[in-house]
Amino acid sequence: MSGLIRNEDVAYVRENTQIDAVIGEYVQLKHAGGGQKKGLCPFHDEKSPSFNVNTTKGFFHCFGCGAGGDVIAFVMKLDHLSFTEAIERLADKIGYQLQYEESSGPSRPTVNKSRLIAANTAAMEFYCAELNQAGAAQAGREFLQKRGFDKAAAEKFSVGFAPDQWDALYKHLKSAGFTDEEMNTAGLIKEGSRGSYIDRYRNRLIWPVRNISGDVVGFGARKMASDEANPNDQSPKYLNTSETPVYKKSQLLYGLDLAKKEIMNKRQVVVVEGYTDVMAAQLAGVTTAVATCGTAFGDDHIKVIRNLLMDSDAFSGEVIFTFDGDAAGQKAALKAFDDDQKFATQTFVAIAPDGMDPCELRMAQGDQAVRDLVARRIPLFEFAMRVVISKYDLNNPEGRVSALNQVAPLVGKIKDASLRPEYVKSIAGWLGLEIEIVNAAVKKVAGKSHTPLPEAPPSNVNLKDPILLLEREVLKVRLQFPELVLEWNEIEQSAFSYPPYQFIRELIDSNLTTSILDVASAASPEVASLLSELLVEPVRIDGEVSERYVGAIISRIREVALSRQIAELKSTLQRVNPVDEAERYGTLFAEMVAMERLRQEQKVRALGESSV
């Protein structure tokens, strides 16, 4: 599609998209009263929620990192989309057909993210249909059946099959209107030895990978047994989509689109190791199971999970890792121990006694066994420490001391200081040492750490000054409850003494035909950030914002502005000679008297309606 999206379409999408519904797909939001919701910011790491959403006005702002804007800005920033791509995605969500205008400027890119998602979706449908065909797909069906997955399970997870043909998908998508560039950029095809395009996946069982919003962004593909028996076939057992504009494996968790609501409701996430483990766990009733997509569990995955759990010092939840019982699984657990320090919530480990993964456990012992595996979880701290201790011979003093020296740093890493004494006691019991000896070793290690210095204040302006707080409050009610601010035009032009507040007042007065946030963004990022703060920051009153409260603070800011003007008039009068400039003196004096009368009226009104 060519041309620019019509302005009226952009406005329609912005106004008819529920911002909390969109953000709620990525962040768990809690009601904060007055049309406000709060959660952990998805754009930076934080322990306490400072990310605010004004559901009434459709804006968000993080008071920690300064990110803010409307629903379009959120989607652009989080999913790394262009403005056009964000509008197209949101329009798809609300089922709105966009109209494009012809443009004489540079043409739009031939490939955009919405087209890549559409190509992936069409490929998924093709693979799903192929799984039910006769021939090579039988091997795929048998693979699923042997692992306890029937046709309904395959359909639930949209498992499909890539036929053993060079260009079956290519021809299918080509006939559906997708270009070579779109298919290649999406990672669905590749260039063959003869220069023509061929399918990337052939004779493989296919799992579609969706992002948190449910869009198909890539695939995981498993080679069939017949291919594994071929000595000339050097392709990997599992083949995943390479990095594309929509597929970022470090940010994706397989099964999250199905599990996210349960994760938020139960405040639990179970991290398993593969696609079939996710299927087995979710079908067995562990509906919070997810897995990484061919990569190690890392910082971006942690950020995604923390946002869903609303993982902060003020809330609790649990992250449960399932690992194989072998050396690789133990190594993964120790890696997870380090990652645990990036969670505020407690982490656990669930390992079957015989080392089976959830898929194998379900096949051998049924659904209940998988649920029991998760229920028998043990704290990750304990597991990691036992793994370290198991490497030493505790039957001699040297082994016990060596084990203590290795396990003490793990205790020192536990961010919850109240847990450390309990693990000191446990380690003393495991090693057969006195508690005092273990405690001394832990303290010695902990003493080597240091606490980073706090960052300097961002500005020397005291925004907590009562007058600036009043100015801020008036702007907030004007932006969030304009229908209650009946006397806005009567507020003196000098009422806002802080220049950024005055600039926003001028924006409000300019009767903009476009989004005020767009204009602020064009002016400066700082002004845009401040504006988004004001659009979501709760009004400083308990209960409902009323006309009485608004009238009181309007009167109060007018009183302050008039006092400021009266002080300047007095200063001017002192410099005027009442004899030589009698007429001017009289005019200024009369103006000051009238202004003082108006100031007293505003003072009485402010005190009579509310104390601010």
Care to describe what's here?
This protein has 612 residues and is of the alpha+beta class. It is built from 26 helices and 19 strands. Strands 14-16-15-17-18-19 form a six-stranded mixed sheet, with helices on both faces. About 2% of the residues have low confidence.
Strand and helix map with partners:
Blueprint: E1 4-5, H1 7-15, H2 19-23, E2 30-33, E3 36-39, E4 51-54, E5 59-62, E6 68-70, H3 71-79, H4 83-94, E7 100-101, H5 113-131, H6 137-146, H7 151-156, E8 160-162, H8 168-175, H9 180-185, E9 189-191, E10 197-199, E11 204-210, E12 216-223, H10 225-228, E13 238-240, E14 253-254, H11 256-266, E15 268-272, H12 275-283, E16 289-292, H13 299-309, E17 318-322, H14 327-340, E18 346-350, H15 358-365, H16 367-375, E19 378-379, H17 380-389, H18 397-413, H19 420-431, H20 435-446, H21 466-480, H22 499-509, H23 516-523, H24 525-536, H25 547-575, H26 582-609
Parallel strand pairs: 15-16, 15-17, 17-18
Antiparallel strand pairs: 1-7, 2-3, 3-4, 4-5, 5-6, 8-11, 9-10, 11-12, 12-13, 14-16, 18-19
Notable features of this structure?
single chain; about 600 residues; alpha+beta; DNA Primase, Chain A; DNA primase DNAg catalytic core, N-terminal domain; Dna Topoisomerase Vi A Subunit, Chain: A, domain 2; six-stranded mixed β-sheet; five-stranded antiparallel β-sheet; 19 strands; about 50% helix
